[in-house]
């Protein structure tokens, strides 16, 4: 609130740790007793969600997949340096903390370069890009490696310690109590960065969605009861949300929502269900920073937006292009999106009265909470 009400307003810092907001509500109608409901909103770094697929992969399987993706993906100096390091390791290399640390540092630099230079998001482990709070444990220093004697055994041990940390630090206490979920993605940014970044974002969304728990089995329920505890909740509603809906005009937001819907639906999904969970797609701007207007571009009227570019008092016009409502074909990439400006947030009152201008939050909250409220 302080950041949005500042002069000039600024965007709040990005999420770098878990945060919980609890909201106690009394819900009722005149003449009837009020019902008390507690809503708990959990925020966590999106990078951490990408660690969930690792829980079902051994170190060897994960390493083969990561190395193959690095070799086939975009070429950067940092990626080449890491692959040269791995390829130069002898088959009989002994375990070494120093080598493990060197390989880890090179691997992290490679991941960072892929995110910054090519806009990729399907990058694991998530905590390598967004570390947890506090000092990092020694077992965090590992990297993908083909099977090789002693050093590989050390990396396997650290990989298993990392997976155990994900289970106990995120999955068990947090996801174990969640019964509805928002999966947020910047599809506009991926479209702007090109086909490689877009396909990478598509893979990341698919991998994250397939790793989440949509339904519990009778075996899991009976096992929990036998241990004297209640079974973990299953996710009953999931919302897939395309962010930055205010960066395109109103007539484009329907396409943005439909694109998110298509990208997150598997072949067996019904349009409104995934497993036992209800699903829906949305295009949202949590803090709207533009206004719609009609812009004459090359003599033709187009639906565009305008707002203040961050650090600039003047208004900036923006028309990034037409948003496809299905995954684009090769012809689309011959006419790439124009630049997506970084707009300054709309200024709000410091006391919060009047709220925060937004797009689509009412529909999103309505879907998530309609069965409760």
Element layout with pairings:
Blueprint (H helix, E strand, L loop, with lengths): L18 E9 L7 E9 L2 H4 L9 H14 L4 H12 L8 H22 L7 H4 L19 H23 L8 E6 L1 H7 L1 H17 L6 H9 L10 E6 L7 H14 L9 E2 L2 E7 L7 E7 L2 E9 L6 E4 L42 H9 L4
Parallel strand pairs: 3-4, 4-6
Antiparallel strand pairs: 1-2, 5-6, 7-8, 8-9
Helix pairs in contact: 3-4, 7-8
Overall mean pLDDT stands at 85
Biggest sheet architecture: 4 strands, mixed
Our Rg estimate from Cα atoms comes to 23 Å
Strand order of the largest sheet: 3-4-6-5
Q: Span from first to last CA?
A: 26 Å
Residues in helix, %:
25-40%
Question: What percentage of amino acids are in beta strands?
Answer: 15-25%
Multimeric status of the protein: single chain
Mass-distribution shape: globular
Helix tally? 11
Q: What is the number of independent domains? A: 2
Task: Please give a structural write-up.
With 373 residues, this protein is α/β, with parallel strands linked by helices. It has two domains: 120 residues, no CATH class; 196 residues, no CATH class. The protein is 36% helix and 16% strand. The chain contains eleven helices and nine strands. The strands form three sheets. Strands 3-4-6-5 form a four-stranded mixed beta sheet, sandwiched between helices. The protein is globular, with a radius of gyration of 23 Å. 27% of the residues are buried. About 3% of the residues have low confidence.
